[in-house]
């Protein structure tokens, strides 16, 4: 039987590029040594307790279960997916090798236990059904993916399924909210909501963010904006500095390149600062172009935009909150 697995690329997907470059998926925690350490779950729990003395019994069990599962249940030929939250893309591939131990002082601990992967197609999170997005939002580092959701990831067309709030649970351990980062699950749901905004609502969201930061804004009327969607300034007219000119591109599958940045810079005046928001991100050349800019310029991708929105949300005015209605949740430490 061919199973499908999700292996997360570290917190907030920071190892996604390494997974692709090395053609691997990987798992690891401090204190775990060679392959022998992932054979006995009880002994592994004891070892992890030494390195994580403040961790709960449940979180230790989940960590040990996932390592043993990665080493012994995942099979050559199984499907595997990992996620890039910046681009909102799932990378899909096939396991090509056994679990191997790769100690290195130059690599993060999470890359210690590796499996070779032949990466294939990509799947945009926005192309998946609501139930698939909810299930894939589980915050466990390693979990199995159901046959129906696997079919969505590997199909060319999204399946039309009803919405669901089901969260995938690890079959080897009782689900314990304190053992995982629930904030990551919440973040993904918020990102899904923001990604569904149309281009004009996205402009309004960015304007709301700037107002929450203390600026007054003028949002361009729909239609031709001549290279500026928003003008933000202390007085609201652009007479006082800083005068910030904002371009918002809500194209989730399109990275903005150097030509777009050059065009934006070319329209700026010496006393203006620039903010370029691209939900599809930027190419490497675009960042180089921004660094050479003769006017102050900040590039904001989707991940950074969401972080900024969440950081400033308490200061959002009513019109901005209506775009993304959120409520605070308190959890005991």
Identify the notable features of this structure and list them briefly.
333 residues; Trna Endonuclease, Chain: A, domain 1; 12 strands
Tally the helices.
11
Rounded radius of gyration (Å) = 22 Å
Major pleated sheet: 7 strands, mixed
* Average pLDDT score: 85
Q: What structural category do the secondary elements indicate?
A: alpha+beta
- Strand segment count: 12
* SSE sequence, one letter per element: EHEHHEEEEHEHHHEEEHEHEHH
Distance between the termini: 41 Å
Helix percent reads 25-40%
| Domain count | 2
Low-confidence stretches: 156-180
Proportion of residues in extended strands: 15-25%
Identify the overall geometry.
elongated
Q: Can you walk through the features of this model?
A:
With 333 residues, the chain is an alpha+beta fold. It has 2 domains: 4-195, no CATH class; 199-323, Trna Endonuclease, Chain: A, domain 1 (3-Layer(aba) Sandwich), CATH 3.40.1350.10. It is built from 11 helices and 12 strands. It has helices spanning 16-22, 41-51, 57-72, 130-136, 147-154, 182-195, 199-212, 258-266, 284-291, 302-312, 318-323; strands at residues 4-7, 24-27, 79-84, 89-95, 100-101, 113-124, 142-145, 216-219, 230-233, 243-249, 272-278, 297-301. Strands 1, 2, 3, 4, 5, 6 and 7 form a 7-stranded mixed sheet that branches. Strands 8-9-10-11-12 form a 5-stranded mixed sheet, with helices on both faces. Helix 8 links the parallel strand 10 (243-249) and strand 11. It is elongated and about 70 Å long.
């Amino acid at each position: 039987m061919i199973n499908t697995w999700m292996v997360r690329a570290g917190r907030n997907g920071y190892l996604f590029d390494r997974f692709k470059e090395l053609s691997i998926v990987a798992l690891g925690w401090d204190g775990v040594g060679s392959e022998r350490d992932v054979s006995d779950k009880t002994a592994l729990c004891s070892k992890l307790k030494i390195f994580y003395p403040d961790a709960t019994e449940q979180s230790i069990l989940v960590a040990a279960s996932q390592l043993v599962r990665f080493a012994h249940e995942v099979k050559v030929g199984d499907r595997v997916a990992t996620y890039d939250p910046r681009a909102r893309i799932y990378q899909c591939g096939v396991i090509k090798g056994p679990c191997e131990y790769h100690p290195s002082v130059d690599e993060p601990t999470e890359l210690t236990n590796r499996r070779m992967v032949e990466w294939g197609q990509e799947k945009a999170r926005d192309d998946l059904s609501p139930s698939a997005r909810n299930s894939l939002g589980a915050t466990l580092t390693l979990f199995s993916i159901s046959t129906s959701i696997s079919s969505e990831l590997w199909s060319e067309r999204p399946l039309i399924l009803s919405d669901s709030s089901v969260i995938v649970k690890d079959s080897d351990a009782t689900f314990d909210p304190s053992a995982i980062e629930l904030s990551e699950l919440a973040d993904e749901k918020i990102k899904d909501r923001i990604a569904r905004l149309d281009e004009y609502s996205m402009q309004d969201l960015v304007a709301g963010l700037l107002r929450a930061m203390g600026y007054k804004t003028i949002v361009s009327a729909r239609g031709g904006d001549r290279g500026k969607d928003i003008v933000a300034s202390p007085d609201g007219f652009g007479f006082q500095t800083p005068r910030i000119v904002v371009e918002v591109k809500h194209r989730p599958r399109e990275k903005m390149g150097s030509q777009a940045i050059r065009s934006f810079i070319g329209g700026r005046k010496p006393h203006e600062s620039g903010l370029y928001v691209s939900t599809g991100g930027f190419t490497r050349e675009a960042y180089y172009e921004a660094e050479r800019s003769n006017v102050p310029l900040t590039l904001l991708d989707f991940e950074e935009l969401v972080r900024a929105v969440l950081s400033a949300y308490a200061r959002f005015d009513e019109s901005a909150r209506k775009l993304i209605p959120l409520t605070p949740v308190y959890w005991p430490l």
